[in-house]
Amino acid sequence: MGFLAPWFLAGAFAVGLPIWLHLLKQHKTTPLPFSSLMFFEKRTQSSMKHRRLKYLLLFALRVALLILLALAFANPFINTSGAAAAGGKKLVVFAIDNSYSMRQGGRFEQAKRDAQSVLSSMNPIDSGVVLGFGSGVQIMNEATMDRPALRGAIMAIQLSDSRGSYAELSRSLRSLAQSAKMPVEAHLFSDMQKSSWPSNYADARLGEGTTLKFHPVADKRLPNFAVETVNSPRRIYDPKKVRIQATISGYGTPAASKKVVLALNGKEVASKQVEVPAGGRATAEFLTLDAPYGMNKGEIRIEPADDFPQDDHLNFSAERADPRHILFVYDASRPKGLIYYKAALDASPDAAFTLDPMTIDQVANVSPSKFSVVVLSDVSSLPGPFEIALDKYVASGGAVMIALGRLSASVHSKVPVFGENVAETKYASRDTERFQTPTYVDPSHAAIQGNQQWDNVKFYQSIKVDPGKSKVVARLSDETPLLLDKKIGEGRVLLFASTFDNISNDFPLHPSFVPFVAKTASYLAGLEEGSPHYLTGSYIELRSATEQGTTVEVLDPSGKRALSLDEAAKAQTMMLTMEGFYDIRRPNGRHELVAVNADRRESDLDVLPAENLSMWENTGQASVNAGTAGDSETVNKRSFWWYVLLAALALAVAETIVGNQHLSVDKEAA
Fold first, then answer.
1. At what angle do helices 641-669 and 48-73 cross, to 10 degrees?
2. What is the helix (H) or strand (E) element at residue 653, kind and residue range?
3. Which of 252, 394, 443, 461 is deepest in the core (most CB within 10 A)?
4. CA-CA distance, 242 to 18, in Å (whole number)?
5. Separation between Cα atoms, residue 380 and residue 509, nearest integer Å
6. Each residue of 339-359: pLDDT tens digit?
7. What is the pLDDT of residue 162?
8. End-to-end CA distance of the chain
9. Which residues contact 599 (CB under 8 A, 6 or more apart)?
10. pTM (two decimals)
11. How many Cβ atoms are within 10 Å of 25's Cβ, its own excluded?
12. pLDDT band, very low/low/confident/very high, at 670 (cuts 50, 70, 90)
């Protein structure tokens, strides 16, 4: 027995109060002289022994009442085993690892057989729960004593392509322990993969009263080779500019020679031999890929296969398309902007665009709708028909990039197409600052994402434009907006408050100019910066906010529909759960192949050391009785303050009754 609030026991010193009342405040009779007693009525007086008995009983009741009140506030408890509290029953959890690494050999089948064996020896009074776990936990059934139902739940668990996570398993076991109200005995059937262990040890903590028993299907590290990463372009515009780089890794392996094969749509197109050092990495590089137009399924694989062939290949997707056309409108008297812009576009690695330059006089009868992007480079004025067509082009979904300089600012008080007012032209001066530099660049904006190294770029002249409803993406040191992004109708306009030449600034002379030109063009053309392959467990966006209510069709790698009818019409994102290729047809009619691969941390088949397992199983034994060696029953603290309070209440009633009788005796004596 113990006390949860032992400091309240100090209240027991209040027993001094009845002692003072009964011993120090006893009634004393003082004899008085009287002349004659003949007129007094003769009565029988109670014996002193009888009166002393009533005083002692009242005293004892009061002392006991105070002691019980002190005990009740101290919250006494007794230790009881969890098994006794639950009537000897416990919840048996069968946790079966179905992560990607369990595909090796017959590990998963062995785990199921071991689970069936443990189920056969389970106590008939115990309840059971079956769960499968990888990166998440899937509970297969409600707690039940029905053995056939438990066997069916074990057999229903399927392998997944997800990464294993012992942290997620521990979280689920803690939740089960809290809701079960009885001891939990968890049986773990797994390859005990080291990479599944959480970086934070506390994440693997078990719930109080939980015992963990291990049933490993692997007892040592298995050497394994895998295709770890593939760097490849998502889109191919010029096959001669394609560069594919594959990394081959060995986990606990000796040095070996491996053949690396590049395959496209199931056919081998190239191969290379690499030497992989012991437990190290090697790189293979392919510099061309003549892919057919449209979506293509790519694969890098290594030969010969090893004991875990599932990770000997890695999928990627590639779309072959023609370059997008950009209309570049410029003033014939200022051709430098064209020279630098074209050089930057040609220097971009993917060759996604073809530049069609035209002077102001040449665009009068040109339709902007033939181009993915229109660039206006410091133009003084535009032909009326072209400017009207350009406004319609943007409103219907087109994209325009405007570079402002001295010519455009001197003619227009309002920027054409962009629609905002020109406030002033700002020049650097020898009397003040000789140049301005960018002090703010929004790193999250798609037009400059990953290209924020503008610190050393010098701007000698800029055009200050009222931002209005546009978003400021970059700003100079004098607070002049440098890059503005504005949504107009269904289209978009980017405004660069300087020129593309090296007169108003030295931006074209910096390495950051090339990615700036390529990224702004891709952003305006709607070429999303997607990945050629994703990991299982990743999410992919299905529709934009403006495409709500439209249907998205998704086929998983097995060829089945991945979305229900309701999800196809409403889902914003979707989790990629299977390795292979997802076929997605978006609301805008775009067809896309999404390549998905398992997390390569699953390829390291090293096992957890024994000390980790020992610490893990002990995290649920904090409440086990330390005095019983080998006893795995949990100890619960059962408080009984309520019963003590009821006893105090009964004593209070008894004290009241005895006290009233004492007062009646005193009245009779009076």
1. 160
2. helix 641-669
3. 394
4. 98
5. 25
6. 999 999 998 887 889 999 999
7. 96
8. 49
9. 100, 162, 163, 535, 536, 537
10. 0.73
11. 8
12. low
Q: How far apart are CA 445 and CA 486, in angstroms?
A: 13
User: How do beta strands 553-555 and 534-535 pair?
Assistant: unpaired
Burial of 547 per CB tally in 10 Å (0-12, 13-18, 19+): middle
Residue 306 has which token pair?
Answer: 């090893």
CA distance 217 to 171: 23
The packing angle between helices 513-525 and 336-347, to 10°, is 80
Q: Token pair of 554, please?
A: 């998704």
Cα-to-chain-centroid distance, residue 512? 33
Distance CA 610, CA 206 (A): 17
Cα-based angle 179, 180, 185 (whole degrees, multiple of 5): 125
What amino acid occupies position 387? E
What is the pLDDT, as a whole number, of residue 5? 73
The SS3 of residue 435 is: coil
Distance (Å, whole) CA 379 – CA 418: 14
Q: Which amino acid would we find at residue 541?
A: E
Is residue 408 within 8 Å of residue 380, measured between CB atoms? yes
Q: Tally Cβ neighbours within 10 Å of residue 670.
A: 5
Phi first, then psi, for residue 407 (nearest 5°) are: -65, -50
Closest CA to 126 of 187, 78, 175, 171: 187
Those residues with Cβ within 8 angstroms of residue 80's Cβ, 6 or more apart along the chain or in another chain:
635, 636, 638
Of 354, 395, 406, give the one whose Cα is nearest residue 375. Answer: 354
Helix (H) or strand (E) holding 654: helix 641-669
Predicted local confidence at residue 16, as pLDDT: 67
CB 293 within 8 A of CB 335: no
Helix or strand holding residue 506 (H, E): none
Dump strand ranges (E) for 154-293. Answer: 184-190, 210-216, 224-231, 235-236, 244-251, 256-264, 267-276, 281-286
Q: Residue 432 burial (CB < 10 Å; 0-12/13-18/19+)?
A: exposed
Handedness of CA 243, 286, 314, 582 (dihedral sign): positive
> Please, how many CA atoms are within 13 Å of residue 254, restricted to the half-sphere of its CB?
0
Residues 6+ apart with CB under 8 A from 48: none
Q: What is the DSSP letter of 209?
A: T
Instruction: For Cα atoms 536, 540, 541, give the angle at the middle one, nearest 5 degrees.
Output: 170
Q: Which of 48-52, 212-216, 565-569 has the lowest mean pLDDT?
A: 48-52
Identity of the residue numbered 545: A
| Token pair 């992560």: residue | 99
pLDDT at 85 over 50: no
CB 606 within 8 A of CB 195: yes
